[in-house]
Specification:
The protein is 58% helix and 5% strand. It is mainly α and 216 residues long. The chain has a two-stranded antiparallel sheet. The protein is globular, with a radius of gyration of 21 Å. The N and C termini lie far apart (49 Å). The mean pLDDT is 84.
Amino acid sequence: VPYAGGVLAELVDSIIPQQRMDRLVKFCKELDDRILKIENKDIHELFQNEEFVDLIEESFVQASRATTEERRGYIVSIVVNGITDETVNYQDSKYLLRLLSELNDLEVIWLRYYLDPIPGSDSEFRKLHENILTEVSYFHEGLDKATINKSLIQKSYKEHLERLQLIKGDIRFDSKTNLPEFDKSTGFPKAFYHQLTALGEMLLEHIGLLNENDNE
């Protein structure tokens, strides 16, 4: 690679491995701090359990790619909840980790938004993430390309959450025909509003966003 070869080689040989190692070190420190607070658990016994070790291995893979502190916190929470929550097993926790890996950080914020989507509610969270949660519509004439692209991406985030069965929409019906209204751009029925599914709520709980006071 004559043009960028030197830089790419440095990325492969040095920069990327070092970044991943730094992320893993931070992750292990955070995980250790949380595990120390767990009562009535024999940690050494946990590490004799192959399914738990498998969960840890999956968490390492994801933590090595986590570019934000928030993402590392989500992963730590899933592992810790896998230890402390008697209603889930390690395979369930690993599934939740894989589900989290399907979402980027902005989609996680949108998922948290649907915990309380009523206008005017959850004001502190909405103000904190106002730049992400402000609805952008591309149905108005004269919009510039950047705004249209932002709207399309925002719409895609919501559709992705729905495909993963983390949110669901109540279908909008035509008042005259009493038939579902369809979105011309997707061919799917229009949703009147969206809400969390039980799976979406479970994921929020296990990454620590169902009750954010748990992480304080």
